[in-house]
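User: Fold this; tokens only.

Assistant: Input:
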Amino acid sequence: MTTVLAVLASLSVVVGIALRVAALGIIPARRKPSTGMAWLLLVLLTPAIGLVAFAFFGSARLGRRREQRLRRINAVIADRATPLQPREEPRDVPAYVTSAVRLNHHLASLPLSHDNTVTLLDDYAGSIAAMTDAVRAAERYVHVEFYITALDDLTRPLLDALGDAVRRGVAVRLLLDHLGSRGIPGWPDLRRALDAAGIDWHPMLPIAPLQGKFRRPDLRNHRKLLVVDGLVGFTGSQNLTEPGYNKPKNHRLGREWVELMVRLRGPVVASLEAVFASDWALETGGVLDVVPGPPAGDPQPGEVAGASCQVVPSGPGYAAENNLLLFTTLVYGATRRLSITSPYFVPDESLLYAVTTAARRGVAVELFVSEVSDQFMVGHAQNSYYEALLEAGVRIHRYPAPSVLHAKHFSVDDDVVVIGSSNMDQRSFALNFEVSLMMTGSDVVAGVRRVEDRYRAMAKELTLEEWTQRGPGKRYVDTVMRLTAALQ
């Protein structure tokens, strides 16, 4: 018996060493150094836990068949969209913006378009109301795609408008993220309401093992967009739910989400249509036509005219991290001012260096974040970057609790702004399907600047002296959570 136990113990040691040696040559392959090192540390310290975690969460692949299907779909959509939106060169912008436009077109095949009108929507209920009004005017189709869709007092008029559109013969198609939406209270009621209204709806990236639908569970479709008749489009950071996400804890705390959406008219709407068509084909197999809309025409009250816009989709199905490449390109182009708003600022090395380098070369860099994060792990991971940012000269403004500053946008000099669904964190770069909108034009940049000014007026600036006085316990938790953020 003693001999058998000794053999088993020796075998266990040999297997453990073999697994560790194999991990050294397998895990870092095709990963960022920080990500590879984080996974290696977990596997080397706790092989059993590390290998199980790596098996479930170590790959951002959608699955070979799904990725092949996505590549075919994107090629078809790009082919159909190109004649509708001839590729145009930027007007009156610096060279770095022109370079970013060409980069975006190379990455996602969607061109820059001129002469669009833009309305910035920073009122939460007002944004839902604007989408509801657009749906009520629909004559041919409504395409809706949101990470979270919920049924509550705020969204009910919009969902009722979708049902009314179906009854008058309008084709209403709706996509919602499977796990993102079912995690909100009232999910069964929402499903029944959508079915009763006759809306053609489908979950994105569904997790249903018994139906053969399973992949890494934290790969999610985080996009937010709505298109009506190819005439008007909406995109930005807001989900289709009330500002407390229907959660009693948020209501008790008075916690509400602060968002920024944009309403668009003009040729850029066809690009939003192409993004929806790609996701619709991926989830349903049906390929939709991408139809051109008319010129925006004269601006309506509250609209900014003459904006040049380019839609940039990103996600695991693309060869590169489209959003990260765009963000770093624009940050390195800054010469005077860089203003970033991100609820979850957990950058990789390239973006961190770009931001801190901008500050060190004299650019006035500011970062707007929430005073208190709604997510424990991400909030502490974000905290771990503050010291390096402050030392480089970045000014950090914390939006007051209990609100959650969930808007996602940034502006560079007087040249360009980006608004969308993408956070500046490693999850949005590598794991989530996102959509970003790059816009140029002095009036639209000035509009975003006014939003930033309102944030600054409400926020409290964090100082390096204040931050370095934190206790060692908080520093330790921040560092550990920073390590987990790299496990992509």
